[in-house]
Write a structure and sequence with these properties.
Blueprint lengths: L1 E4 L8 H16 L5 E5 L5 H18 L5 E6 L2 H16 L3 E6 L3 H8 L1 H9 L6 E4 L2 H9 L5 E4 L6 H12 L11 E6 L8 H9 L5 E6 L5 H10 L6 E5 L3 H10 L2 E4 L8 H8 L4 E4 L4 H4 L5 E4 L4 H13 L7 H9 L2 H12 L1
Parallel strand pairs: 1-2, 1-3, 3-4, 4-5, 5-6, 7-8, 7-10, 8-9, 10-11, 11-12
Helix pairs in contact: 1-15, 2-3, 4-5, 7-14, 8-9, 8-13, 11-14
Length: 348
């Protein structure tokens, strides 16, 4: 039983996108599941909670001892909501598992003593935990969270895995030094994603380096003001939120993916970019170094435009060494089948 926000891969990114991959994996292995939406768009928080509670209560009664409840947890409001929805199945003898997705979890455990205690308290209803990378497991163990912890990276959807299979054998026609170099940043346009740093880095690069920013969000006007201030309107384009064929076309024509985010717990967009054979530049805080490794890109040690610009130049100067590495990594570690096996083993 999956308890989460709607897994539709919508504008919110993260959890919904990852769930599509997990559901693909469960479908392939023939394991039955049902999704209970903990928050229903267009309904109040209380109404959404009440609808989810009754579904979970009835399923707990009918499937006592057989149903596994798998809760996908985000920031505080999500943690509180999932805590309240996990109590009944836990008391009725069902297995309960918390899947921790949010980068804010690191803040909660390191902010102060009270925040740490409340965070640990929020995990009481769960027998087991799932985290996204080894870094997260180490964080929880160091915080004194003594539960069984399974590492399970987010999977790409079957769509992106099919793209990766095509790109493993196909080879790019690399351009000469004077041709345009297409950089892409793709994210929800909120604080912490580092988009402003990429824009400022473009100002430090030769004129043939251009940037497309894909996404929508409250910071968009701020980013546009930086572009105008630096006189980069001819080199920086805002595409808005894209999906489907538009997303595929944009990623296919790009050369480098760059997102120095300090607000990602894993970074679904990184493994999506890898599927399209794009070398990745990220900010190497905590768990991101587990995802963006040297074979598929570079992690900046500092979230600064100068270092981002240098890394872009470095990757461009040796871009052929990254040929095929991203798609290979996706198919080895991030397919629905491979990742879902972690969950199946945990359920057993």
């Amino acid at each position: 039983m999956i308890v989460s926000t709607r897994p539709d891969g919508g504008v919110g990114g993260g959890i919904p996108s990852a769930l599509i991959g997990y559901m693909n994996g469960l479908d392939d292995t023939g394991i039955p599941y049902k999704v209970v939406e903990s928050h229903v768009e267009g309904k109040s928080i209380l109404t959404s909670w009440w609808l989810a509670f009754w579904q979970i209560f009835n399923l707990s009664i009918k499937g006592r001892g057989e149903v596994v409840f798998w809760y996908h947890c985000g920031p505080w409001l999500s943690l509180i909501r999932k805590f309240s929805l996990a109590l009944v199945p836990r008391l009725l003898g069902c297995k309960t598992v918390a899947h921790i997705h949010s980068p804010t979890f690191n803040d909660y455990l390191n902010r102060n003593y009270l925040s740490k205690i409340l965070t640990k308290f929020s995990l009481i209803p769960y027998q087991e935990l799932i985290v996204l990378t080894p870094w997260w497991k180490k964080l929880l163990l160091n915080a004194g969270i003594n539960k069984r912890i399974t590492i399970s990276p987010n999977p790409n959807s079957q769509y992106f895995c099919d793209i990766a299979r095509m790109n493993v054998t196909s080879h790019k026609n690399y351009k000469n030094d004077k041709a345009l170099v297409h950089i892409i940043s793709m994210a929800r346009l909120i604080e912490g994603k580092g988009i402003e740093l990429v824009i400022k880095a473009v100002a430090l690069l030769p004129d043939n380096f251009i940037l497309t920013v894909a996404g929508e969000g409250p910071q968009k006007s701020y980013y546009e003001s930086i572009v105008n201030e630096l006189k980069l309107s001819s080199r920086v384009t805002f595409s808005g939120w894209i999906d489907g064929d538009s997303k595929e076309k944009l990623l296919s024509k790009s050369d480098i993916f760059c997102l120095p985010s300090s607000y990602d717990s894993f970074g679904m967009v990184f493994i999506e970019a890898m599927a399209f054979n794009l070398p990745v530049i990220a900010y190497g805080w905590g768990p991101i170094q587990d995802v963006v490794t040297d074979d598929v890109g570079l992690c900046c040690l500092k979230a600064e435009e100068q270092e981002i610009a240098l890394n872009i130049l470095q990757i461009h100067s040796q871009i052929e060494r990254y040929e095929g590495k991203g798609p290979e990594k996706v198919l080895k570690y991030y397919t629905p089948k491979v990742v879902t096996e972690n969950i199946i083993e945990l359920i057993k």
